[in-house]
Design a protein that fits this description.
It is a single chain. By secondary structure, this protein is an alpha/beta fold. The protein is built from 28 helices and 32 strands. A hairpin with a 2-residue loop joins strand 4 and strand 5. The longest helix is centred in the first third of the chain and has 58 residues. It starts with 38 loop residues before the first helix and ends with a helix.
């Protein structure tokens, strides 16, 4: 095996030297306040925040745990603090159409001032209107009018009385009203006297009686007109009296808001309604109504004169930045709340509540794309608002014509907000494909990377990040050796010696756990020892299934050979990812071949246990065999491949090198060294291509070899392009340094064949043959035998 290139211990793991760190402890550093390793996303984000045009909302895409939401809030707040504070908004009663409350805007802090002004005005009206109607001046005017009315009324009655007397009648008042009674010598006729009258005299009395009745009707009509004028004049006096005090109290308010036409229109309606409601105000002889107004606004008649300070931006120092973590429909758009009263639901404009969009109006709204899309109605409502530039509060049921109760329809509010969605790239792609409005509304994509270059600048930035996080949570100081260990762990997370992970949430987990181990040990500084302990313990907590698999291998339940040679049998390397832990382990791939025309079949494919990528790899193998060994004669081959003892689905092409070598071994009847495992994919030209998870795959086979006992000749073959992806555990590194374990990088499948079989592959000669005792010669000879046997049969 010595003729093949092996990786040195220094090549399988990048180590951060402590001497490149310009500090001994992190408390010597300045805290890092920005975002690390996301230059592309930062430029996109900053540009998107500066564009003040419709449709330039932003989607921040990136892996989970890269700090997208934290960065979005941080950078947005930095920009927002230098921007204008938006207007306050109030809802008021619509006196012309009570079901459509009016929305009024005010400069910042003035919304609350307006509300207080109107409450003071109501307070004064409730006190002064009863007082002015109890004044001597009002009483004098009222008495004069009343006396005049009474005199006029008496004159009418006297006129009727005189009219009756001239006809020898008198008027008598009964419960049913006035009646006329004929008289003789000033006294009413008795029944006997009336009976003694002649018919002519009776006719004359009857005629006079009818004449008096007609006169009474005419007098009563004039009396009603007199009463109407009296009431009208009294009402005019009331209106004049009320108007004087109302004007006195409301004119200063009108003067204050003379330049706000919406407020002026509202105050005019307010004044008219107060004048129409004078009787209600006159009944209030104390200020107890204000207590009712505050405590039970929905039950008070006078709530209509209040003000709902809907959005109050008094405490803002710049444009608002709202991060809504639960973007349901009502939390985004606000709602009209209801109160149950005697079995009915009632509401008022005072119960209109704002949503996140109202609070973010004039600023920025940050939302989780996943949470927003889960609430489908929220997404459609948000799109509508962004397209129309208006936000309308309405019941969800109204959108479908399913209104259960009579609701208010508050006046819509114009809105200008920049929405920032935060999510994984999948949601961005999903929206692009399925929603035609999305690219029109979200023109900026800030794409977060899941890794960054491992250079001195980013290494120092991570150290400063550790300092900043330590200040925030008041943690222990980290020694330079601890920081170096975090750097190496970050590279392992990134799966590259040249990269560092940007999944800072995972780094924070290790930082917190290392600090805990330091505290448990009674240490004041977190060093590499504590970091190694934290990483080991974290892996131990999560590697349950890896231990189960290794235990199965050790007990022989999962049949793996790490020594000897086998024909058509090879150790492929696979990776299992459980989300919080990823590990590799060997998996036996076997191949058998025989004469026939079925070609190469894969048992997993036939049983529908394989994915499309794996099936593609199988077709590549078939084409490789054809291109190399069937230039002169058609392949006469039946062969099958399978992953032994695999009972779940498989996918990916990282085992295609192993499958091809197992197949060639079966055809050539050449044994494969079981002490060497292989990973890598192969193309139709026999070139080996890089795959993922090489660190975990190598460590998985190392653990298996260690289980059965190290022989000194065990190792792994992997693609040459994957060298920089190795960040092996220190135990494996030491085994490589001591020549107990070996890593062989290859570029072609021929190199892998030679390492695993110990035989040369053999180059095609000019006469179209291969040298004897080479793999290619043996394969072609066996295939020719199949052809000849087929001819004889």
């Amino acid at each position: 095996m010595g003729k093949f290139y092996e990786l040195k211990a220094e090549e399988v793991r990048a180590i951060c030297p402590i001497d490149i760190l310009p500090f001994e402890k992190t408390d010597e550093l300045n805290p890092f306040t920005g975002i690390i390793g996301q230059e592309r996303a930062v430029r996109s984000m900053e540009f998107g925040l500066r564009v003040q045009r419709e449709g330039y909302n932003i989607f921040i895409a990136g892996p989970i745990g890269t700090g997208k939401a934290t960065y979005a809030q941080s950078i947005t707040k930095q920009i927002a603090k230098n921007e204008k504070v938006p207007d306050d908004w109030c809802y008021v009663y619509n006196f012309n159409n009570p079901e459509e409350p009016l929305a009024l805007s005010f400069p910042v802090k003035e919304g609350k001032v307006f509300a207080n002004t109107m409450y003071d005005l109501l307070d004064n009206l409730l006190m002064e209107i009863p007082r002015v109607f109890e004044s001597e001046e009002y009483s004098r005017k009222k008495n004069i009018l009343f006396n005049k009315y009474q005199d006029s009324k008496a004159e009418l009655l006297n006129e009727l009385d005189q009219f009756a007397k001239m006809r020898n009648f008198i008027l008598q008042e009964k419960r049913s009203g006035l009646i006329t009674v004929a008289t003789k010598d000033g006294k009413p006729f008795s029944q006997e006297e009336y009976e003694e009258l002649s018919p002519d005299e009776k006719d004359r009395i009857e005629y006079y009686s009818q004449e008096i009745q007609e006169k009474a009707i005419e007098v009563f009509r004039r009396g009603r007109e007199l009463e109407r004028k009296f009431i009208e004049t009294l009402d005019n006096i009331d209106q004049e009296t009320g108007s004087l005090i109302i004007d006195f109290l409301i004119n200063p308010v009108l003067e204050t808001y003379k330049n706000n036409h919406q407020v002026l229109d509202y105050l005019k309606m307010y004044k008219e309604d107060v004048l129409d409601s004078l009787e209600d105000f006159r009944q209030k002889e104390d200020d107890s109504e204000l207590a009712v107004l505050v405590e039970k606004e929905e039950e008070s008649y006078f709530v209509r004169f209040g003000v709902n300070v809907f959005v109050d931006n008094t405490d803002l120092k710049g444009a608002p930045v709202i991060y809504e973590t639960n973007p349901t429909y009502y939390r985004l758009l606000g709602k009209v709340e209801y109160t149950s009263r005697m079995g009915s639901l009632v509401t008022s404009f005072m119960q209109i509540k704002p949503g996140a969009l109202h609070h973010a109006n004039g600023g920025y709204l940050i939302l989780s794309a996943k949470d927003l899309l889960v609430n489908g109605e929220s997404w459609y409502a948000l799109k509508r608002i962004l397209k129309t530039g208006k936000i309308q509060i309405e019941n969800i049921g109204e959108s479908y014509g399913l209104v259960a109760v009579v609701s208010l329809h508050p006046q819509s509010i114009p809105i200008k907000v920049k929405v920032i969605l935060v999510g994984i790239p999948y949601y961005h792609q999903l929206l692009l494909r399925l929603d035609e409005d999305y690219p029109k509304l979200f023109k900026i994509k800030a794409d977060f990377e899941d890794s960054m270059d491992r250079n001195e600048e980013n290494i120092l930035n991570i150290a400063q990040f550790i300092r900043a996080y330590g200040e925030m949570v008041e943690s222990l100081t980290f020694h330079a050796s601890g920081v170096a260990e975090i750097i190496d762990y970050s590279s392992r997370m990134a799966g590259s010696q040249k990269k560092l992970s940007t999944h800072f949430n995972q780094l924070i987990e290790v930082i917190n756990e290392a600090e805990t181990w330091a505290k448990l040990a009674g240490d004041k500084i977190v060093s590499s020892r504590h970091l190694k302990k934290a990483i080991r313990e974290k892996e131990y907590r999560n590697r349950k299934y890896e231990d189960l698999i290794q235990s199965s291998i050790q007990e022989g339940k999962l049949m793996i050979d790490c020594t000897g040679q086998r024909i058509g049998q090879i150790n492929a390397l696979v990776v299992l990812d459980f989300g919080d832990f990823m590990f590799g382990h060997p998996s036996k791939v076997t191949a058998v071949s025989y004469r026939g025309k079925r070609g190469v079949i894969h048992i997993e494919r036939e049983t529908k246990m394989s994915g499309a990528i794996h099936d593609k790899g199988l077709m590549i193998l078939t084409n490789f065999l054809g291109s190399r060994y069937a230039q002169e004669k058609a392949l006469n081959l039946s062969a099958s491949l399978t992953f032994e003892q695999v009972y779940g689905g498989i996918d990916g092409d990282s085992a295609s090198c192993a499958e091809l070598i197992a197949l060639i071994s079966s055809i050539a009847q050449v044994p494969i060294n079981q002490n060497i495992a292989i990973t890598g994919s192969v193309n139709q030209f026999g070139e080996v291509q890089p795959v993922g998870g090489v660190t975990q795959k190598v460590e998985g086979f190392f653990k298996t070899c260690k289980t059965f006992g190290m022989t000194g000749d065990q190792g792994v073959v992997l693609p040459k392009q994957n060298i920089h992806n190795l960040m092996l555990d220190q135990e494996v590194v030491e085994a490589i340094r001591n020549k107990q374990f070996h890593i062989y990088p290859i570029s072609t499948i021929d190199e892998g064949i030679e390492i695993l079989t110990g035989l040369p592959t053999g180059h095609l000669r000019r006469d179209g043959t291969y040298p004897r005792n080479t793999i290619n010669f043996l394969v072609k000879e066996r295939l020719n035998e199949f052809v000849e046997e087929e001819k004889k049969s």
